[in-house]
Description:
Blueprint: H1 2-40, H2 64-75, E1 78-83, E2 86-91, H3 94-103, E3 110-111, H4 115-120, H5 134-146, E4 162-165, E5 170-173, H6 174-189, H7 207-236, H8 245-252, H9 258-289, H10 291-305, H11 319-331, E6 337-342, E7 347-349, E8 352-354, E9 359-363, H12 364-368, H13 411-428, E10 429-433, E11 443-444, E12 449-450, E13 456-460
Parallel strand pairs: 2-9
Antiparallel strand pairs: 1-2, 3-6, 4-5, 6-9, 7-8, 10-13, 11-12
Helix pairs in contact: 6-7, 6-9, 9-11, 9-13
Bound molecules: protoporphyrin IX containing FE.
Protoporphyrin IX containing FE is lined by residues 127-128, 140, 143, 147, 267-268, 271-272, 275-276, 279, 334-335, 338-339, 400-403, 406-410, 413-414.
Amino acid sequence: MALADTLHDFSAMALATVALALLLVFLITRFSSNQKRSSEYLPLPVVPGLPLIGNLLQLKEKKPHLTFTKWADRYGPVYSIRTGASSMVVLNSTDVVKEAMVTRFSSISTRKLSNALKILTSDKCMVATSDYNEFHKMVKRYILTGMLGANAQALGIDVESSIYVEGLGTRLSREEIFDVLVMEPMVGAIEVDWRDFFPYLRWVPNKSVEMKIQRMDMRREAVIQALFREHKKQITSGEEIEYCYLSFLLSEAKTLTEKQLKMLIWETIIEASDTTLVVTEWAMYELAKNPAPQNFLYQEIKKVCGLDKIREEHLSQLPYLGAVFHETMRRHSPVPVIPLRYAHEDTQLGGYHIPAGSEIAINLYACNMDKKQWDDPEEWKPERFLDSKYDPMDLYKTMAFGGGKRVCAGSLQAMLISCTAIGRFIQEFEWKLKEGEEANVRTVSLTNRKLHPMQAIIKPRV
Ligand code: HEM
């Protein structure tokens, strides 16, 4: 019995020793492979900042693309900054941006929203702000199939002068509707709530910002509701309604809630109006400033369209017009910094280790002003897109529409609308900048919009 007990104890001890040895081997291997993993990467350059707030003060002018580009000259194309308690990795070169958008997409496909954006987007209830998941795939498919062509519209009604908005108890004009649906939320989207930078202080009330954004949200909802009512009124009165995205969604997307429907309609309005307008205005500014390219474009249009008004079908025969569009997208990108992405797991970019939890800022402005990639990047030269090294059909050369699985859903539509508008303006008038306008290049808001609208002298063509 004593011998059996001894043998039993001995085999238990042996087993325990083997298990311990295996555990040690496992831990050592893990540890050494981790050691190897972190030593494989270069240390990520860090832009020095202040304790606690990091680099926030250096970004206070709300033109992050310019500050990021300045830092890239000093710290290289990939570096890290601190925005309060969060760390943000900033990407400033085409190679590394493509790596983020395509190769490492699965690790950085999600969005982290500010408090203001959470309210304005009903917490990721839109294509652009949702994480990359089944909802995203479904609603992106809806936009891609339901909003086609230059004549695509969100709603099949045209607000001629004004509509009654019951939720606000008043009538609003077209301009006021544009303000509520586009201008106010654009301002709200960059509203700074300091709690975004210090999530551990989220419990501290910040009523003034919250109330401002909630008011915008309430006004936006009331206007969309009024537009929906007009749309329904027109249908029930038997009036013929033009094909529109709302009719498409009502017939195809039965699983959407009323709230989702409103957000998806609003999304197409806000994403299409400002950006398309911004690029068209900058193209006209450059053409009015540069008579030779303007004349070249006029001659091209005249040759292809003759006395006809330029239409969508002509665009494929107008390479110089395409080049004007792409060069304007490069030089005056309407979205200079892509809405922040978020690394939800450890990954790598440009040979650096990127820890899970980092926010990722993609600075398209720096990519498009990179001297290594573009000759004289400050110059606006459409002919660079006619060079054989650029494929004129390549929409995504400047990445101004993003890239990979989250590429802009309206790129083709934006191009059709903007090119047709530029073409019509040039067909009808000769453009010249008003004196002093050359220096009028200050921008405002998220989308590079001109602070002061362009002023030009136009002369009808004979
Ligand atoms: C010149 C005009 C436009 C520019 C410069 C532009 C630019 C962009 C950019 C940079 C992104 C982010 C892509 C990314 O995260 O990688 C984006 C996303 C998006 N854009 Fe546009 N856009 C324009 C017009 C439009 C129009 C007309 C629509 C039409 C409805 C639209 C709908 C969207 C949507 C739905 C997304 C989200 C895509 C996703 O997350 O999968 N955009 N756009």
